[in-house]
Specification:
203 residues; alpha+beta; Alpha-Beta Plaits; five-stranded antiparallel beta sheet; two-stranded antiparallel ribbon; 6 helices; 7 strands; 43% helix
């Protein structure tokens, strides 16, 4: 049976096919200035409208948006960097692995950066939005307790891209090399926020 495609919209359009591999980026609240985010969204929507709904154009724009978002997050010198703290990073690791253990996702890799997280996984149960609610809700409660703070921990919206089979290895590399490109380490295995599933190899 062909997987049905679901659609929801907040600030950006999201197209959510069932049983797909997802590349998801989620970031801390206030990790980017509002003006930067608004400009990224305006650029994305403007280009999307020029594509006249073409699915391939839509995919390319989704990838472009995530790359631009990532560059801005790596370069940002303001905003919280709580994920750089070992105790907070461990909380997020635990909750990501919990989704895998609960068979909500099959986890392939992730990189926990100081102000954002990249995830690559296959969705097995629940909708994508629900899986992210589990991750964000559970981790934010525990992280805020450790930090002695209240209020939003994660930015409300995550950014997702459905991964084709011929993109998989490239995206694994992209995720694991993020801390290298950001100048945090010289070799990706040295970054404590990186995870690669044991049966995969980093080519």
């Amino acid at each position: 049976m062909m997987a049905q495609e679901k659609f929801y919209r907040r600030n950006l359009p999201h197209f959510v096919p069932n049983d797909s591999v997802y590349f998801v980026t989620t970031r801390l609240t206030d990790s980017l200035p509002v003006a930067v985010v608004n400009q990224l969204i305006r650029n994305h929507i403007e280009l999307a409208e020029r594509g006249n709904g073409d699915p391939e154009v839509r995919r390319q724009l989704s990838k472009r948006y995530l790359v631009e978002l990532d560059k801005n997050l790596d370069a940002c010198k303001s905003g919280p960097v709580w994920l750089g703290e070992p105790a907070i990073r461990e909380i997020v690791k635990t909750e990501i692995l919990r989704l895998h253990q609960e068979e909500i996702i099959d986890l392939w890799c992730y990189s926990i950066m100081p102000n954002h997280v990249h995830l690559l996984f296959t969705l097995r149960s629940e909708e994508l939005s629900r899986a992210m609610q589990f991750l964000k809700g559970r981790s934010s409660i525990a992280a805020n307790r450790v930090l002695g703070r209240r209020g939003a921990f994660w930015q409300h919206e995550s950014y997702d891209h459905v991964v084709r089979s011929n993109e998989f290895e490239r995206i694994v590399r992209y995720i694991l090399l993020n801390p290298v490109k950001a100048g945090l380490v010289e070799n990706w295995p040295d970054w404590p926020g990186n995870y690669l599933r044991p049966d995969l190899t980093m080519l």
